[in-house]
Amino acid sequence: MAEKTDEAKLDGWRNLLSGANSGMDAGEYTHPVQEAALTRYTAEAIYRADGIGRRIVDLPADEMTREWVEVRGNRGDEVAQELRRINAKHQINKALRWAGLYGGAVAVLLIDDGSSDLANPLGGTVRSVDGIRVYDRHQTHWTQGDISTDPRNPYFGFPETMMITPQLGIPFRVHRSRMLIFDGLDIPDQIRINNRGWGDSRLQSVYRALSRYGEALSGTSGIIRDFVQPTLGMKGLSDMIASGQEDVVQKRLEILGLSRSILNVLLIDAEEESYEKKASSVSGIDKLLEELKHNVSAVSSIPQTKLFGRSPEGMNASGDSQTRDWYDQVAGEQERHVVPPVEYLVDLIDRSMGGAPDDREISCNPLWQPTEQEQATTADSVVKAVTLALDYGAMTPEAAARNIERFGLETGFEDG
User: Is the distance from CB of 52 to CB of 295 less than 8 angstroms?
Assistant: First the structure.
């Protein structure tokens, strides 16, 4: 009995004549390639020269900090005033933008804890927080010896100290406890190692789509410049040029009043003199540009209404759905990139004031700001609900006042 040989079992469909799903199928040789990391100079060139690229970097940071944060609890107003004094909103926005552009940034906190050496861990006593200085990832450096190898250390596996190299001034070392770290887009660990421990720039994954869109706009500009091409046919043009009678051709153009735009005229040899304008076809360019816009919007995760500043199309299209989805996405980024550093900063300010109160809470203010009509409707609903709860004895006057005050209404209730 002959032995059966193993045969490869392939799922799907194969057509040897067309080459589909066979060794002759060109699609089988299509595979993803890893893009080289954008250099600092490439990222900066896009940021300065390409308005859409700049918006891809700035818009998430601006939205994350636009409505800022609310500090609740005892001394909440005083802490908020301290945040304004050290310009925390602007500095954190700056750190988020540089993290989006370069893939990472740090904010060095100028803390008065009695130590004059920033390389020392933060002491237990905090007298004041005097300011914030932001540096991008290319201004930070560390060695293998700076990485903590103690599993009990909160910075285990990460640099415990960093060398900061400012554009102006002398390099200095800073302990991790005196810094806020702002990472770029999350990437796999192996790629992160190749990226010197940092995340990706927001421009990394959109670079190809942005390049294609820029090329298309440039090509469209060329088409517009040559949209109408005047054509002048002259009898015996070739013979006249061959016999050195270019001056005759020039005089004829001047007579026709075309000397001012001679570079935009196409001369051809013809049996009889003729003059006409030929228009280039621009059919389908608008649809092509629209698809390229969709691509840039998709890979950047920013809706076109925000990225390109265009109004939504279609019947009953208001853009509210896209805007709400975008705000939900930004809210998720706020929880990861804004709330933790602000909580650390507020804790330091509380320590300078004697310690954090038990009721301290920090949250980002809503990005979606209701209209006056929506505010009036909400206020009416809250007052009716609270009044009903009071009538049935389900709520004390104090609790009712607190609930109404949450919505910023004048209550008329008195404590006690």
Answer: no
